[in-house]
């Protein structure tokens, strides 16, 4: 005689989706430990008439540990947020702050003048002002054919 089995469609669906993701990405979708989790700082990208402005939340990152590059109209911000020295007596009940290396690559909506880019850091926020590249306007004279 056949045994009765409880069918849980959502658990089966999740298992199948996890299997597909594991196969595709070669790592678990929701591992028990999030050791592979990379810290990704939040960014705002805005545009004025003459500049692109990027603001990134980088609390706890020292300005000298931030690297900014522009190549092929892509702004790359990378660095590392280092863990503070822990006292051996401290027992953590919850750890939610992220540490480690980070990298953000942002496709810029227009060409910028790389020579005039300015970056400032205040209260844990990196602000990068990227002046737009000004194309020289050329007036074309219309000639009359004879």
Give a written overview of the molecule.
It is built from one helix and seven strands, in the order αβββββββ. It is mainly beta and 146 residues long. It has two domains: 9-35, no CATH class; 39-84 and 96-134, Immunoglobulin-like (Sandwich). The strands form two sheets. It has a four-stranded antiparallel beta sheet with strand order 1-2-7-6, with no helix packed on it. Strands 3-4-5 form a three-stranded antiparallel beta sheet, with no helix packed on it. A hairpin with a 3-residue loop joins strand 1 and strand 2 (51-57). The longest helix is centred in the first third of the chain and has 17 residues, at 9-25. The termini are far apart. Mean pLDDT is 81; it is low at 27-36.
Strand arrangement in the largest pleated sheet: 1-2-7-6
Judging by the overall fold, what is the CATH architecture of the largest domain?
Sandwich
Largest sheet: 4 strands, antiparallel
The fold-level CATH name of the largest domain is Immunoglobulin-like
CATH class of the largest domain reads: Mainly Beta
Helix content: 10-25%
Give the topology string: H per helix, E per strand.
HEEEEEEE
Q: Helix- and strand-based class?
A: mainly beta
Average pLDDT works out at 81
Distance between the termini: 102 Å
Strand coverage percent: 25-35%
Quickly count the helices: 1
Low-confidence stretches: 27-36
Count of strand segments: 7
Number of domains: 2
Radius of gyration of CA atoms, rounded to a whole number: 25 Å
| Outline | flat
């Amino acid at each position: 005689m056949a045994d009765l089995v409880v069918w849980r469609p959502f658990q089966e669906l999740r298992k199948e989706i996890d299997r597909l993701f594991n196969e595709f990405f070669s790592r678990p979708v929701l591992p028990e430990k999030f050791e592979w989790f990379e810290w990704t700082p939040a960014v705002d990208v805005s545009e004025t008439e003459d500049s692109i402005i990027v603001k990134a939340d980088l609390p706890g990152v020292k300005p000298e540990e931030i690297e900014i590059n522009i190549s092929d109209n892509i702004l790359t911000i990378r660095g590392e947020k280092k863990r503070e020295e822990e006292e051996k007596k401290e027992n953590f009940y919850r750890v939610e702050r992220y540490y480690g290396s980070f990298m953000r690559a942002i496709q810029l909506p227009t060409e910028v003048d790389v020579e005039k880019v300015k970056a400032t850091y205040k209260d844990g926020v990196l602000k990068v002002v990227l002046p737009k590249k000004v194309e020289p306007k050329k007036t074309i004279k219309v000639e009359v054919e004879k």
